[in-house]
Amino acid sequence: MIHKSISALTYAGAAALAATAIGFAPTATTPQAVAQQAGITLDQAVAALRGISTMKADFIQTDRNGHRVSGVLTLKRPGRIRFEYEKSVNMLIVADGKSLNFIDYDVQQRQRWPIKNSPLGALLDPNRDVSRYGKLMPTSDPGIASVEVRDKKHPEYGIITLIFVRRPSAPGGLELVSWVALDSQNQRTTIRLSNQRYGVPVSDSAFRWKDPKPRTRR
Question: What total of structural domains would you count in the chain?
Fold first, then answer.
């Protein structure tokens, strides 16, 4: 059974769990030392993120209780993302450029938040300056960059930790492989990506959705 707090699943991630997102352990090395060793800077990670115009990828989503669901992610910056879940999950999460919508077709309900008010704003909101609110976190692998993004003035926005690995074919030579997010209610979610495809044609219609409420006849 899928946990009903799945609306928070894209809202979750703590820096302490960034290591487990892709299976490496943090060390006592300072972020600055990691950056120097790996040759990866925060600016390079930000440039790689901004270099993604469109992307499609498979994903596995895990909540803090270990519940896992899979699906296909479609991203179009700025402001648009769609989590299309496996057929057994009658839910949808989609951002249409202005708001982030969680739709549960089983109970015929939709919840809506401004994009900027969620950790996903780091991915989607063009006004969210990742270079200003982000910092490198230590890792044990020089080929991995871990970037924690939080706005200390707005803790209600939550925290997201983005994980990049070196890949020459990815924008900026760094591929976004996962993120861990933590919302203001301490709901944690890990998203792991695979089979990333960049620059693919994506229509704005991909970010529309069917109203979960049935129409009433007059």
Answer: 1
pLDDT at 85: 94
* Residues counted in the chain: 218
Say how far apart CA 105 and CA 102 lie, in whole Å.
Answer: 10
Residue where the block lists tokens 């991203």: 75
- Greater confidence (128 vs 185) lies with 185
**SS3 (DSSP) at 121:** helix
For 7-29, the pLDDT digits (tens) are 344 333 222 222 222 233 333 34
48: in domain: yes
- In the DSSP assignment, the letter for residue 133 is H
Give the helix/strand (H/E) hosting 174.
Answer: strand 174-182
The range of the structural domain enclosing residue 11 comes to 7-196
Say if 17 falls within a structural domain: yes
Q: C-alpha distances in angstroms, 24 versus 32, 140, 187?
A: 18, 7, 22
